[in-house]
């Protein structure tokens, strides 16, 4: 009997050691997943989309029926808008052409604004609520790489946490901590040099907003509702991705810098289709 | 083929955990309450109670395997679910040596298992700095809603799966 007790104790101790080793291994900064992890993620991801697709199809039909009721009214408004856009398109084309010509003159082809979009569908969400992750159905084979920004039509939702061959995991903005900073800016077009630069530091769960730490002390006051976009200075994300709007400005505990509470522009809970942003301009490796 | 049924059902619940949370109405997901599905654990407990014999440890093996899969697929912090599920299922297995397999015992044992595993997972996540919530809030915001949601799940699958499990167990161990 005592032998069995010892054996049991022994097993549990080994279990705890394995647990600690595995946690330590996974908390390490990892560039890519192991082959085993990739294989498992792809298999589960495949099964997830097999279930997700038909169910999503049905729910879409239901919401489509709701949409039909509004179609007439929407159509009328859209037609009006379309007329406006026609004028705009012409203007944009002119500006694009001019921009290209100017770029040629200064010999710069790519900017930090350019990116290749990779369209993807969300297939699952992590049931562990502390881990704010969703799974999308595009992976390394489609050109997705770790740390790429992920956006929806409304704005940024997160970045690629890890990628396997056919699926990847997105870390949502709601799960960002000090290790996932985004270089961001509030652009002011009134005068040159008035832009406000700072870092999105983390997501504050109590106020449900992102903390935007303003680097330089400036006399300008932020106004509520101002749009915060990525600045592209971090080297990973392209510039100009909308992140959110200013909700409130508070001084930090030492009174040296100020922090703005940012309301994320994109809906971080109901995400269906996303775009993975592949920045054109590569950063030179150190 | 028979041997594959249990892993397949477990795999199905594992996949469903992620898909369901994405498809459920956002009010459930956004709200202040956190519901963590432990459907794999609930089914593993049923396997322990109705399928495993006194000297077989199939559920514990599945707990290790599928706990590990949950770690890889949903959290990327390896080992936490694996260890927790394995220990909890092992404890349930030891308990079932002295208890009878009926509905009320199942309910009590599953509730105990859910509380133990969720508290332990939260403990580990607090230690490594992922969960940021006081223990007092944890009980009302996370533990209670999760418990209710998972008991609901147990009530749904109990009538469907228990008879099957007993049948499969008889077929498996009668020879």
From TrEMBL, chain A:
What positions belong to coiled-coil segments? 78-105
InterPro entries in UniProt:
Cell/Rod_1, Cell/Rod_MreC_2, MreC, MreC_beta-barrel_core
GO CC terms in record: plasma membrane
Say if the entry is tagged with keyword Secreted: no
Keywords on record:
Cell shape, Coiled coil, Membrane, Transmembrane, Transmembrane helix
The record lists the membrane-crossing segments as: 9-27
Domain of life assignment: Bacteria
Its biological purpose is as follows: Involved in formation and maintenance of cell shape.
Family matches, as NCBIfam families:
mreC (TIGR00219)
Family to which this protein belongs: Belongs to the MreC family.
Task: Please report the name of this protein according to its UniProt entry.
Answer: Cell shape-determining protein MreC
Which organism's genome codes for this protein?
Ornithinibacillus halophilus
Automatic annotation (TrEMBL), chain B:
Upper lineage ranks? Answer: Bacteria, Bacillati, Bacillota, Bacilli, Bacillales
The family classification in the record reads: Belongs to the MreD family.
TM ranges: 30-50, 57-74, 103-131, 143-166
One GO CC term of this entry?
plasma membrane
Asked whether the UniProt record includes DNA-binding among its keywords, one would answer: no
Membrane topology, as annotated, equals: Multi-pass membrane protein
Tell me what this protein is called.
Rod shape-determining protein MreD
Short name of one Pfam family for this protein? MreD
Biological process per Gene Ontology, one example term: regulation of cell shape
Location comes to:
Cell membrane
Q: Which organism is it from?
A: Ornithinibacillus halophilus
Which keywords belong to this entry?
A: Cell membrane, Cell shape, Membrane, Transmembrane, Transmembrane helix
